[in-house]
Amino acid sequence: MPLSARADLVRADYGKSGLLGCPAGQRCGTAGTAPVGAVYIVISNPTRDWAPWYSIEVEVPCGEEEADLTPDPKTIDARIQRGYSVRFRDEPTSHWDGVLTVSAGRNGGLFTPGDSMVLLLDGFPVSSKAGLVLLKVTETSGRAEEVQEHSVTLSLLKQAPKVPRNFRPKVALVDSGENVVLLWDGPDILKYEIQRPDGGVELAELRSASGWQWSPQPDQAPKRDATYTLIAKPETGQQPGYFLTTTVQLRSPEFDSVTATNGVHTPWAEGTTDKGRIVFSAQGAEIRGASGAPGIVSAAKGELDVVSTTSVRGRDNGAGWIQFPPDGIKVGHGEGGDLGTVTAEKVSANGVNTTWVGELDAGKGWLEFPQSGVHVHKDGKREWGTVDADRADLNGINTKWVQGRDSSTGWIEFPPAGVNVFQGAGNRQWGTVAAGEADLNDLVTRRARVKERLTVEGDLNAAQNAAVGGDLTVNGDLRPMRNLEVQGAVIAGDLTVRDKLTTDHEQFKLVVHGESLFLGKVNANRLLSVRTEDARRRRPGVDPGRPASPRSIPFRQLTVMV
């Protein structure tokens, strides 16, 4: 079919067809057998110009006659084999409905100089009668103003088979240990041998009504995908032999070792003996046992960013374990649900909820947390223990007694009546309270000793003796219920004695620098001396003969001798 000088598809070189590996033509089937055929149609542009095209149609004759290609056109798988370069246009599409139609798209396609396209028709049974099959190919091509249809007829020669063919496994995908059966067709005039994947060769002599057949010995069953070679030789040895290969794939292959530089792509991997399995999911990998249940990972070390699990335990059955309930972590040990022990050098936590806390040695102190607060015990028993602290800030302390850091220091007891202070040495000997200031509502004591000054703003009541070593300053009244004995001087702005005033001094008995008022009798067992600067000062208007009041009796010296 002619082409324009500018651009067109080829004529004589437009197409070449034939069975792949058998350029002489297709082999027709025999009785009971129907070999699978394949036709390759090569479209090329041998010109120096770009060739625009729009469609290509291939008509295939179907039936059982000599000029027919196949008795079953529905089995033909017609398609475009990739390799055609799309330039500036749409990807070509194919359609099969008894006629193969290839379309270049709305705007057509372009074949560059030397460009090609392969149309493939395969998967169909070849009709059994030998003969010449003609394929009509029609193209629609040319530039917009010169679009034309061009037709060419391609020929295929169907010949009666005279060589071995259709070498195939009975089952292409088998399980490990499953019997492998290889089948092929061929004349009886040839000698057939099978070359195993390991290179060994065995004679194949089993002939059945449907064809030839061979199986490996049970101990030679393949453990991984295996390729077998059929060697067919004439008995005379004067003609060249034939070599056909086929491959048997295992559903679960075994490998001595695998080296993958670009990775291994598989949905799962399984062991050969114990049948442990690794399943690859969208989230990662799952480890399963032989039953399909989650399995066990054994490793010397694992480095993970995050571990999501319901529990973690030691390798032994009686080892400790950690569970992860919704509220946190649960630590236990053994096969049951007994709680375990957490051992750590340091624990940093916002809070700890526990019934008790103990030292690493079970025989040491421990804390118990009842509803009322904290109990401190010692020696691993329920005996009360000791709290040692540099400082304690408490709202209140309920205790029987308080003592210094060692047994020689003082201690305080808290009886129902109040507080008892004892010395550290001895047996309940009263101790001393030392304070910068004491603010008391009442002070009840057997003795009170003031080394420097005792200042009483209110009343000072002493049921028995009150001894003051220094000065005693009383801003108000000093009213002793019994005797008041003063070793030094008594200085008072006003001194009132209701019963008896007894003074004892090395030099002076009683010294009064101001006026003295005695409502009762003044008894002096020895000497009573009263001195004043002026025995009698006359004032104008004063009668000198008038008797003076007791307060102003004029005398220089009054001496009473008893």
UniProtKB/TrEMBL annotation:
The organism's place on the tree of life at top rank: Bacteria
Descriptive protein name: Uncharacterized protein
Organism whose genome encodes this protein: Streptomyces broussonetiae
